[in-house]
Design brief:
The chain contains 10 helices and 5 strands. It is 75% helix and 5% strand. The strands form 2 sheets. Strands 3-2-5 form a 3-stranded mixed beta sheet. Strands 1-4 form a two-stranded antiparallel sheet. The protein is mainly alpha-helical and 309 residues long. The mean pLDDT is 84. Putative odorant or sperm cell receptor. It is a multi-pass membrane protein. Its main location: membrane. This is Olfactory receptor.
């Protein structure tokens, strides 16, 4: 088979049945628009209300911004493929999509870790919290996260750009991902795959261990609170974040924690849809529906007193 440094691919992960394309288009379009609306409505009160200018809401606003970009990396191309019935993508387009997908996925991971550190500082060290989570330190956490995400994604993109690929091949997915691309490589990709696995492992496991460690300390601190009301109040500040962590990592593990294969079973593709589209859509609603401060602020900003009543 012929090889090329700049081949075209076909994204074949979505249904091959034309009768389902309209249904899938409507479903994914609704999810995408709901994701945009939900994250924008969460950004609006956080940016407009000075009472929400705290580290927790600062990290939450960054997460909403990242989720807006995350869904916009894959959803428009997926909708275009369903609408035009043309799922082809150039190598440069594939590499660009993959680069930004990795950046925003890594940022989701790192911001959830920063939010866990913030909750740890607030619950375990409440007296020192203003000194621990200063605006400067919060800003450095976010800037450092962006730097790490872009650096790791750049390494991945550079490694892939050096590969040659079989021409006229199908990617059994609805977006470009590292695994399927390496499988289509006709070059020796062993070293590149090892580097990819090492960086992904470090960037995936380290934040998760940090989150677990933070919550171990949080639960230990809450257990020492004498009153049931005090325990409930302390845990209430973590419930939304913990829900987001569980949803994020469960779908990531379902998508990527598997043996390498040349095909993607339906269950795996469903997990990928949840990971790339459903989770970013649910995140703002998880926080807004459980947070009285966000709800009341959004009511004031929009002038809708009956919202969520």
């Amino acid at each position: 088979m012929n090889c090329s440094k700049n081949p075209d691919f076909v994204l074949s992960g979505l249904s091959r049945d034309p009768e389902k394309w309209q249904l899938l288009f409507g479903l994914f379009l609704a999810l995408y628009l709901l994701s945009l609306l939900g994250n924008l409505l969460l950004l609006l009160p956080i940016g407009a209300d000075i009472r929400l200018q705290t580290p927790m809401y600062f990290f939450l606003s960054q997460l909403s911004l990242v989720d807006l970009c995350f869904t916009s990396t894959t959803a428009p191309k997926m909708l275009e493929d369903l609408w035009t019935s043309n799922a082809s993508i150039s190598f440069s387009g594939c590499l660009t999509q993959l680069y930004f997908f990795a950046v925003f996925a890594d940022m989701d991971n790192l911001l959830l870790t920063a939010m866990a550190i913030d909750r740890y500082a607030a619950i375990c060290h409440p007296l020192h919290y203003p000194l621990l989570m200063t605006p400067c330190r919060c800003g450095l956490l976010v800037v450092g996260s962006w730097g790490v995400a872009h650096s790791v994604s750049l390494v991945h993109a550079l490694l892939l750009s050096q590969q040659s690929f079989y021409i006229n091949q199908e990617i059994p997915h609805f977006f470009c991902d590292f695994g399927p691309l390496f499988q289509l490589s006709c070059s020796d990709a062993h070293l590149s795959e090892e580097v990819l696995m090492a960086l992904t492992g470090i960037l995936g496991i380290s934040p998760l261990l940090c989150i677990i460690s933070s919550y171990v300390h949080i639960f230990h601190a809450v257990a020492r609170v004498p009153s049931a009301q005090g325990k409930k109040k302390a845990l209430a500040t973590c419930s939304s974040h913990l829900s987001m962590v569980i949803l994020f990592y469960s779908t990531v593990f379902a998508t990527y924690l598997k043996p390498t294969s040349t095909s993607h079973p339906p269950g795996e593709l469903v997990a990928a849809v949840v990971y790339t589209l459903v989770t970013p859509t649910l995140n703002p609603f998880i926080y807004s529906l459980r947070n009285k401060d966000v709800k009341s602020s959004l009511k004031r900003v929009l002038g809708i007193e009956s919202l969520w009543n």
